[in-house]
Amino acid sequence: MKTVLSLGAGVQSSTLLLLACRGELPKPDHVVFSDTQFEPPEVYAHLEWLKDEAAKAGITIDTVTVGSIKRDAIDFARRRGRGDVSRYASIPFYVANNDGTQGMMPRQCTKEYKLEAIDKYHRRTVLGLKPGQRAPKEPAVRVLIGISDDERHRAKPPGWWASEQEEIGENLFGGAMVRKRKVWKPVHWQVRAYPLLNVEMWPDQSVTDWDVIGGIWTRADCVKWLEKNFPGRKVPKSACICCPYRSDAEWIHMRETDPETFAEAVSFDHEIREAYRDGQARRGFLAGVPYTHRTMVPLEVVEFDPNRTKRKGCGALWDEEPDGMCGL
Ligand code: SF4
């Protein structure tokens, strides 16, 4: 079985890579980073440092990308409805609806910009499959994911729940009575390994022990290990500059430590509203106004609360992102 480390370049996945470099975790056959082309410069600088450290241990980090999430998100907002957008670049913006209600846009960005690129990498580079060729029916790729104990709920087996309709009889009018049910769709060729949780999860949803680093680690344990082994090195939070999942504490950190990147986020926050306005106006209706921050005011006038370290309002959405791709 080939082992592939999914590198998000945040604290947890960086810890896994560096543990492997030190021989404290079995060396992965491949390491892959999926680039949305809109991460803060500190993430790219950290990635370059990781590449150097990995190279010393004979490990190569491969970068895959499907394009720029920034450019595509704006293009998607302007052109949506014309049917000529190639990628569904939907970021989970907060939306002020015209009827006074508030909502959130569907999140497709992790799937489109990270998971699909990684999936293609697994199939083509790791398994050597040609386009259209079937993947093996048995586990052939062990995917190492940096989820720590404090985010344990994000660890999921390889597969997804699909919604299916089942006919269960006739209704009063002679039509079919159907009920919806969730059906597990396994990814047969994958095993997901969570070294910080000491477990592996299998396509049939079974869970087995995989104690390779001696104990269960929290994010704080990772930070402590990094400080001890790489004194002075700060590992940034890995997420797109425009990500609405950032907590207030993370926005404040960006504004204070990297004003240029914060200015880029402010500019994008305006651009995306203009793009949605143009797209909606062309289609003859205004559906709602998107914002990057949950208070639904332009980013530069948000009164961030330094005590708000949690990403309020999006916990359930992060739960759906089990691949250790965003924020880890
Ligand atoms: S970091 Fe945020 S914006 Fe970027 S892909 Fe993940 S959820 Fe989407």
From TrEMBL:
InterPro entries: Rossmann-like_a/b/a_fold (IPR014729). PROSITE patterns: PROKAR_LIPOPROTEIN. Gene3D superfamilies: HUPs (3.40.50.620). It comes from the Bacteria. This is Phosphoadenosine phosphosulphate reductase domain-containing protein.
